[in-house]
Design brief:
The chain is α+β, with helices and mostly antiparallel strands and 221 residues long. The protein folds into two domains: 93 residues, Immunoglobulin-like, CATH 2.60.40.10; 68 residues. 42% of the residues lie in helices and 19% in strands. It is built from two helices and nine strands, in the order βββββββααββ. It has a four-stranded antiparallel sheet, with no helix packed on it. Strands 1-2-5 form a three-stranded antiparallel sheet, with no helix packed on it. A hairpin with a 6-residue loop joins strand 1 and strand 2. The chain starts with a strand and ends in a 6-residue tail after the last strand. The C terminus is likely disordered. It comes from Cephalopterus ornatus. Keywords: Membrane, Transmembrane, Transmembrane helix. This is FNDC9 protein.
Length: 221
């Protein structure tokens, strides 16, 4: 069974084999292993690291995810039979191609950008929360200060009103006490304050005798 390895790159290789009429099984087994050592390794199936199964209708297969600059051995057998030396080939992978390196760099840059974006969003959210919390705290303090000022002003106005009411009640009580003690005090005070009342004529209203108008005297009063 002569197999050939073609299109070798840093990560892939194509294996081609001729169809065998004697292989009546349902699939081919493609086995490969890196860093093969003929002296220490045997051709048993357990000695191979990877194995792929391909339908018998195919005669080629592309192996992927290989390591660059590595020596591989690849064997093709019918179904689960152990390979022999004439069913295997040894090959070396190439350096990593520029497209793969570019894709790796792009993936790395994208990962870094995503990580940085997430961190910036978290930092921005923390700063925004801190600012909002500080603003709410200051607003609450201003409202409390306004409430205290309003209560203080209301208390002062109420105190002044009560003092005025008490003073007015006291003066009114003094006036009532004075009226009770000196009923004519108010009339006397009125006459003293209005001396012109003393000069007004006094008319007698007696029915028994009529007199001429007499000028009132303050001393008589």
């Amino acid at each position: 069974m002569g197999i050939t390895i073609q299109n070798i790159t840093g990560n892939t290789a194509m294996v081609i084999w001729p169809k065998m009429a004697s292989c009546v099984d349902s699939f081919y087994s493609i086995m490969y292993h890196p860093n093969w050592n003929n002296m220490l390794s045997s051709y048993s199936r357990k000695s191979f690291q990877k194995e792929e199964r391909v339908p018998t209708s195919r005669s080629s297969f592309v192996v992927e995810n290989l390591t660059p600059l590595t020596t591989y051995i690849m064997c093709v057998t019918c179904q689960s039979a152990n390979p022999s030396s004439d069913q295997c080939r040894v090959f070396n992978t190439l350096e990593r191609d520029s497209a793969s390196v570019s894709n790796t760099k792009k993936e790395l840059a994208l990962g870094i950008w995503l990580t940085s974006s997430v961190l910036l969003l978290i930092i921005a959210a923390i700063l925004l929360y801190g600012c909002l919390h500080l603003l709410c705290h200051r607003r609450h303090e201003r409202l409390q200060e306004r409430n205290r000022t309003s209560k203080r002003d209301h208390g002062e106005a109420w105190t002044k009103n009560m003092a005025y009411t008490s003073e007015f009640s006291r003066q009114r009580q003094q006036m009532q006490d004075t009226e009770e003690k000196h009923p004519g005090g108010i009339q006397l005070a009125t006459i003293i304050e209005n001396p012109s009342v003393c000069n007004e004529p006094v008319m007698s209203t007696s029915k028994s005798q009529e007199r001429a108008p007499v000028t009132g005297q303050c001393s008589a009063v």
